[in-house]
């Protein structure tokens, strides 16, 4: 590397260190599943773990560059492949706000990840670009306290990859803090707290959530408890990090009358991460987990399934016929948004012009979209797959509820909405309007149980449980509307990147002819409710096909025909 290129001390030390973190050569490794090019994808770099050592080193340096860009703040990185198999791993980068990497920087991260081993110049150029993008006020301040928090899920490969990440941070001359094993949302929360001057400890996380739950479920003496709402929830932890962390949260909420029965905690000889268990398995297959004894639970038992890094949740109830009633992300969005909207209405005289909006993706069941449009008086926004898209869109509402059908989601309160709720509470108290005060306090306390940085399965469970418990004669979970029959299928093709989509992934632009074929198949179904789309996955090597229709058989026929069309156009 030229002396000019290495003019800053960090560039020199990075260039020296990167030599020791070469990419594995595919022929040495024998791993044919390793990618030839790293793409940032839906939620960060993700692939077979053996291919990721150098990517983690570089991503650690990138996270350090982002901390420096913000004038010495704390950023973060989680080593996780979330819902993917145990043999995969990945990188999720966290900004000082606790949010995800700005999408404009994904290309820069890819430039760094894909640069040749010997090409320190390109790597340093990418890091300089990562450093150059920040809020002007941040960039102006000194970077003396730049820090990167590094966490990992429970995958076996995690320790070595976290070490490579820490080395990447060190190489930039930035303080690296090993936060050990944590859920993805926990690490987001720790980063958020570190930058707002709040306690970023794990204890403080459980304290905040449990105190929020306690406040939200506290009842006045004259109020009735919802007798129908059992106090135990059975949780399928996907044999992942949630198995470790939910027991701490369980201890924190036990004094407030909520008990967790944790299954698939990852500590059995038969444990296998995300394999026949976890939210992806339950939601896509509309079935109960294959381990954990769910088949022996009494019908109607309230259960939750989370994913490998505990940032998604879906509820389900076993039925007497041995089936399952799934309460997916769409249903959770309805429960939460309608509950918030009802509180806003109750507080109406004091809380004007506050709207509750919902953000969905194309996967949202048409019945949920119709229901929400009717209930809230406005259609939910539809954005491409990926928390990063939903979160940003939800920030545009006063109260924005976002959920993917697969269970990623949360509710966000804009700063002005939070302030309006605070002011309205004082006004309602002065007016001694106790129903309005109650509604406003419920909205305040809901904010305390919600992880403010990102969707979080642990926080989501507490919010749902609190809403059910708070609502006398709570609707049975999942009873708001009846889902249209639907199916999501994976198709493996030679090159999934051939598929380009638009209109929030509802239409295909390329390859030519594929959208026409899909349109013709949907028309041929003679079903006005039939809807279908295809998109390349950003976390797995497959194309996803989604079909819904008014009858199960239509869904099956249409799916088969679209799979054939995808194979014909991308084979
Ligand atoms: C990630 C993203 C989600 C997305 C999912 C599937 O989830 O965070 O927003 O829905 O991947 O994406 P795709 O269909 O592109 O594979 P996770 O839980 O794996 O991090």
Automatic annotation (TrEMBL):
CDD domains membership: PGM3
GO CC annotation: chloroplast; mitochondrion
Needed cofactors: Mg(2+)
Molecular functions (GO terms): magnesium ion binding; phosphoacetylglucosamine mutase activity
UniProt domain Phosphoacetylglucosamine mutase AMG1: residue ranges: 328-470
InterPro entries: A-D-PHexomutase_a/b/a-I, A-D-PHexomutase_a/b/a-I/II/III, A-D-PHexomutase_C, A-D-PHexomutase_C_sf, A-D-PHexomutase_CS, AMG1_III, PAGM
Disordered: annotated segments: 16-36
Enzyme Commission designation: 5.4.2.3
Catalytic activity: N-acetyl-alpha-D-glucosamine 1-phosphate = N-acetyl-D-glucosamine 6-phosphate
Start and end residues of each Alpha-D-phosphohexomutase C-terminal domain: 491-563
Pfam families: AMG1_III (PF21404), PGM_PMM_I (PF02878), PGM_PMM_IV (PF00408)
Positions in coiled-coil regions: none
Keyword Isomerase: yes
Biased composition annotated in UniProt, kind: Basic and acidic residues: 25-34
Known pathway: Nucleotide-sugar biosynthesis; UDP-N-acetyl-alpha-D-glucosamine biosynthesis; N-acetyl-alpha-D-glucosamine 1-phosphate from alpha-D-glucosamine 6-phosphate (route I): step 2/2
Enzyme class name: isomerase
Keyword Isomerase in annotation: yes
Gene Ontology biological-process entries: carbohydrate metabolic process; UDP-N-acetylglucosamine biosynthetic process
Keywords annotated in UniProt: Isomerase, Magnesium, Metal-binding, Phosphoprotein
Domain Alpha-D-phosphohexomutase alpha/beta/alpha per the UniProt entry, residue ranges: 67-105, 124-191
Similarity annotation: Belongs to the phosphohexose mutase family.
Name by which UniProt lists this protein: phosphoacetylglucosamine mutase
Organism: Ostreococcus lucimarinus (strain CCE9901)
Lineage: Eukaryota, Viridiplantae, Chlorophyta, Mamiellophyceae, Mamiellales
